[in-house]
Structures are given as C-alpha cells and as structure tokens.
TrEMBL record:
One Pfam assignment: Aminotran_1_2
Entry's Gene Ontology molecular function annotations: transaminase activity
Protein name in UniProt: Aminotransferase
Cofactor: pyridoxal 5'-phosphate
Lineage, opening ranks: Bacteria, Bacillati, Cyanobacteriota, Cyanophyceae, Nostocales
PROSITE patterns: AA_TRANSFER_CLASS_1
PANTHER family, sorted: ASPARTATE AMINOTRANSFERASE
Species for this entry: Anabaena azotica FACHB-119
Protein origin, superkingdom: Bacteria
Keyword DNA damage tagged: no
Gene3D superfamilies in the record: Aspartate Aminotransferase, domain 1, Type I PLP-dependent aspartate aminotransferase-like (Major domain)
Length: 388
C-alpha cells in the first residue's frame, strides 16, 4: 500500500508516545514516576461535569452548528473581552475539538504550499507538523536561555521573507514555561504589523502564571495588530478538561468563516453536551482555576529546588504553564539518549527536548502529585550523578 506522501513527512507525537509508554509500564505494575504528560492531574471541577450531565439529560445530544453552540460562542466572546480586552463578536469565534484542532483549522485555512510560518524553538511539537501536513514551510528560529527562550523582535524581523504568512507565538510556553512581558509582546506586535503578516497567539496556558507574571494578549495592543491576530485557546489546561476536547479560535471573520467551512466538512460540531460544560466553565466561579494554579505553584517550587540541587543540570525559572526545561548538556548525553536511559534505569519518564527542537534539554511536567515529584527527583539525581 502506498500512503500519501505527506504522511512520511510527519512524525508521531513523541509526548503522547512517552506518556503512553509510562502508562503501560504502570499497568504492568512497574513503579514509574511520570513527568511526561502535559495534563493536569485534577479531575474536572464538579460544576462543569454537572452542567454537561444536565445537558445530556435534557437531550442535547444532536448535531449542532459546526462552528459551535451559539451560547458558548457568546460566552467565549464575553471572556475574550473581559479577560483579554479583545473585542470579538460571536461570529468571530469557532468552537473546535481542542486547542490543537483550532490551530490545525487555522493552518489549513491560511497556509498554501510554500507559505512560510515562523516558529520560535523550543516549540510545541505539533506546530511544525501541522505546517508540514499542508505543504507549508516552518521557519524555525532558535532561542536559548540567554533570552529566556524567547524570540526577540530582531530575530523575528530577520526571519520574515516575502513568503511569510504567519508567526506562531505561545506564551506561557510549552515546553519552556516562559512568559513574554507586555513590553516584549508590544515589540513583536510592531514587527508583525510592519511586515503585514498574521500572528497566532496560542494562549492555552494563560491562566497558569506565577510570581505576579502578567499575560497580555497581543491582539489587544491596537487595531492594526488586532486585525492580524488569531487567538487559539481551550479548556484543557485551565479547567482540567483535557479529554473533553474543546477549544476555540477567534480572529478576523473571513478566516473564522473559512475555518468553520473546513470544520463543517471534517469533524462537524464539537460534542454538543460537552459544550454546555464549557459554558459553565467560563460563566461560573473561577475559584477552581485558582485552586489548581496554587497547587501548581507549590509543585513548581519543589521541582525547581530539587532540579537546582542536582549538579550538572541547569534549569531556568519559568513564570507560567507547568513545565520545567533543564539543560542537560553537562551530562554529555543528547536528549533522547538521556530519556531512554532514565526510563530504563530509574523508571522516570520525561520528554526529550529534541521533540521541541532543543536537543540539549529535557521537559518535565509538574502536573503531578508532590510525592511523585519527590521520588522522581531522587531517582533523577542518582541518574545524573552516574553520568557526570
Ligand atoms: N497548545 C499548546 C502549547 C499545548 O501545550 C497544547 C496541549 O498540550 C495545546 C495547544 C492543545 O491543547 P488541547 O488540544 O488539548 O486543547
């Protein structure tokens, strides 16, 4: 059988593969400490589940509009106004099967073969794969600890060519956890406007911030940048709704309309009753978001202190998300070798930085309980000491 050529150009998600391996080892009774999944370990808050269950009982089980339940689109438009100072109407919003799907819809809607998409590395691993799937070209701009793993306006300007269509901005970032300051966002916005390209702002971790860090949405900085901005967001991380598969994309009407057409022919609407849970998530109390954030803050400190006490690792302190991204170069191992040996010898699952375009790093998610974090750190220390 001959598969389509595009298939050979994409690689399966390494994060999903490692998380699955860790789960399978656990199922075999092996005592694995997994820091692999980008998934809060909390259950979805009860009031969100209750709203979805009520919708299910009420028979909200039929096809709905492909772009999403009108009530949810209204709630999202209100949220974008209130939290992010973005003035979107419900028709500027499409509800998708997760943030991943919003980004994919956008790429399919916007990127032609040969179009260039600027992606700072380390990047969330699906961005370049999505671009490849539609025949576009990812222009990877490497960043390192010296700029806090953030792209500078000069780097962005240099990467732009006449073929550039889109710049991908992700703050707080997966995998580094870094958060761009309002001044940094403003400087990037100026470059985007000057070059007249689009920016997609992936804001899925916007609620998970520490030490007074502020999230600012690039589209809120004036009409010129607003007209060139797409916002991708979702419910997975802030409300611990990873399995619900609900996200959204907001932006200029022509692009959202195109994304809705694509969705109308690919997935149709997101699970109808699940969307009612999402309405409750946005409209009811936000205490659950804060409770989870506080738990993450505590774990972050424990994990950071632990990593910093391991000679040979160097770990930047991020202000957001739930990941740490230590530099492992002193061990002399590349990231895949490091991760393979770590899981084999000490049953600790972490993600090799190569998956995010950074072979000298590993990614640890601290969206797991403190006991696992403490045990995993001890094992990691033994492993690193054995290698330096
Ligand atoms: N964007 C980033 C940076 C992510 O880390 C993730 C999930 O890991 C997503 C988007 C997609 O989230 P979901 O499709 O679960 O809403």
């Amino acid at each position: 059988m001959k598969l389509a050529a595009r298939v050979s150009q994409v690689t399966p998600s390494l994060t999903l593969a490692i998380a699955a391996k860790a789960k399978a080892m656990k199922a075999e009774g092996i005592d694995v400490c997994s820091f692999s999944a980008g998934e809060p370990d909390f259950d979805t808050p009860a009031h969100i589940k209750a709203a979805a269950a009520k919708a299910l009982d009420e028979g909200k089980t039929k096809y709905g509009p492909a772009a999403g339940e009108p009530k949810l689109k209204e709630a999202i438009a209100r949220k974008l106004q209130k939290d992010n100072n973005l003035d979107y109407k419900p028709e500027n919003v499409i509800v998708t099967n997760g943030g991943k799907h919003s980004l994919y819809n956008l790429i399919v809607a916007l990127i032609d073969p040969g179009d260039e998409v600027i992606i700072p590395s380390p990047y969330w691993l699906s961005y370049p794969e999505m671009v490849t799937l539609v025949g576009g070209k990812s222009v990877i701009v490497p960043t390192d600890a010296s700029t806090g793993y953030k792209i500078t306006p000069e780097q962005l300007r240099k990467a732009i060519t006449p073929k550039t269509k889109l710049f991908v901005l992700n703050s707080p970032s997966n995998p580094t956890g870094m958060v761009y300051t309002p001044e940094e966002i403003k400087a990037l916005a100026e470059v985007v406007v000057d070059a007249d390209i689009y920016v997609v702002s992936d804001e899925i971790y916007e609620k998970i911030l520490y030490d007074g860090a502020q999230h600012i949405s690039i589209g809120s900085l004036g009409k010129e940048i607003f007209d060139r901005t797409l916002i991708s967001n979702g419910f997975a991380k802030a409300y611990s709704m990873t399995g619900w598969r609900i996200g959204y994309l907001a932006g200029p009407w022509e692009i959202i309309k195109a994304a809705s057409t694509i969705q109308g022919h690919s997935t149709s609407n997101v699970c109808t009753f699940a969307q009612y849970g999402a309405i409750a998530a946005l409209e009811d109390s936000q205490d659950c978001v804060e409770e989870m954030r506080l738990a993450f803050a505590k774990r972050r400190q424990v994990m950071l202190d632990g990593l910093n006490s391991i000679p040979g690792l160097s770990t930047a302190k991020p202000d957001g998300a739930f990941y740490l991204f230590p530099d492992i170069s002193k061990t002399g191992l590349k990231s895949l070798e490091f991760c393979d040996a770590l899981i084999e010898e000490h049953q600790v699952a972490v993600i090799p930085g190569i998956a995010f375009g950074a072979d000298n790093n590993i990614r640890l998610s601290y969206a797991t309980d403190l006991a696992t974090i403490e045990k995993g750190l001890e094992r990691l220390e033994k492993f690193v000491r054995s290698r330096i």
